[in-house]
Amino acid sequence: MGAHNSHRGDQAAFFRNGGSKLFPEELELLGDIRGLRVAHLQCNCGQDTLSLAQLGARVTGVDISDEAIGFARKLSRESGVDADFVHADVYDWLQASAGRTERFDVAFSSYGALCWLSDIETWAKGVAGILKSGGRLVVVEFHPVSAGFDEDFKLRWNYDNQREPFEEDEGVSDYVAETGGTFNGFERGVESFKNPEKSYGWNWGLGEVVTALLEADLRLTRLCEWTYSNGFRPYRDMRELPGRRWTLPQGVPNIPLMYGFSATKEG
Ligand SMILES: C[S@@+](CC[C@H](N)C(=O)[O-])C[C@H]1O[C@@H](n2cnc3c(N)ncnc32)[C@H](O)[C@@H]1O
Known about the structure:
Elements: H1 2-6, H2 11-16, H3 24-30, E1 37-41, H4 47-54, E2 58-63, H5 66-79, E3 84-87, H6 90-97, E4 104-110, H7 120-130, E5 131-142, E6 166-168, H8 175-179, E7 199-201, H9 206-215, E8 218-226, E9 228-230, E10 239-241, E11 245-247, E12 258-265
Parallel strand pairs: 1-2, 1-4, 2-3, 4-5
Antiparallel strand pairs: 5-12, 6-7, 8-12, 9-11, 10-11
Helix pairs in contact: 6-7, 7-9
The structure holds S-adenosylmethionine (SAM).
S-adenosylmethionine (SAM) is lined by residues 42-44, 47-48, 63-65, 68, 89-90, 110-113, 116.
């Protein structure tokens, strides 16, 4: 996280000046959230949380990383954009918050969050537990098909093993440096970062995610797929599109790189 943020310049000024890090895809799925109570699950360092707050929502960001939550609280203080931040495991927080009288209108999660969840069914039920009746879950994620290929577009794994965690020896990379431009210009910052920690994740398939929603009585109202990637360049020779987006290198099949949905809690 330190490496990621080292490339992002004066973030407090960015938010103080009304900046937002949200992309059109999540904005469209979220709709008007003015005055709504929003839970931002796996909020990382809070940049999207503050962007949601800029839209007039009352936002609570939750993340398991103490470093990320510490950064988010400082960014909120220094930018003057108000949001609550909770340092917790998302499963524990969902369970502890379930059934509270003040429930959430919207739960939101995006871009590299679901791959850290070991149990998608328990997560979906937990999300349903914090939503008001008629409340919505909005997610925008990298597509599980795209994760099956390495940076040279060679097959890393097949699509049919979602229940088995994948292991990555090199751990989470400095993808902010690898992608270049960020929301506030690019600063050189930490160079040649190497993560010594292995990581384990889950490449949940679309069928598994949707089934988990339905089993949690969350009614799918929109499901979208996109053949470009917002703010993330997973393969070599990707072509840059306007708006911090990347699309596939020339000559490779036009696979989906992102998906998103909105699902409503049944009454
Ligand atoms: C790639 S980041 C998501 C970034 C997000 N799109 C944002 O708003 O910047 C994934 C986050 O999930 C968090 N995370 C992973 N497992 C978690 C868990 N069990 N509970 C809460 N947060 C978790 C990590 O700490 C990390 O901050």
